[in-house]
Design brief:
Helix content is about 0%, strand content about 35%.
C-alpha cells in the first residue's frame, strides 16, 4: 500500500505510548511503512568521549513509528483521514 504521509506534513499520534501528541514529519521510510515525527518516540544514546579529557554526551533523537499509528492533521487543525491535496487546473 502507498504511504500517504510525506515529509513536512503535520500528524497526530492515534495509538501507542505517545497517543495524543502531534508533530511534524521529519523523515519517511516508505519500504518499511514507518515515519519519524518530531517530539514523538524519543530515545537517548550515550556517546563516549573521542579525546582524552573530554566528557561524553547523551544525545536524544526520535525513533521511527509505524505510519498506521498516525493521522494527518489539516491546516485548520482538524484530523483528516487523508490529506486533501489540491489538483492543478488543466
Amino acid at each position: 500500500m502507498k504511504l500517504r504521509i510525506r515529509t513536512g506534513d503535520t500528524v497526530k499520534v492515534i495509538a501507542g505510548k505517545d497517543k495524543g501528541k502531534s508533530g511534524k514529519v521529519i523523515q519517511t521510510f516508505p519500504k518499511m511503512n514507518r515515519i519519524v515525527v518530531e517530539g514523538v518516540h524519543a530515545s537517548k544514546r550515550h556517546l563516549r568521549s573521542r579525546r582524552q579529557g573530554e566528557k561524553g554526551q547523551i544525545v536524544e533523537f526520535f525513533m521511527p513509528i509505524h505510519a498506521s499509528n498516525v493521522q494527518v492533521v489539516g491546516d485548520d487543525g482538524v484530523a483528516r483521514r487523508h490529506k486533501q491535496r489540491h489538483r492543478s487546473a488543466k
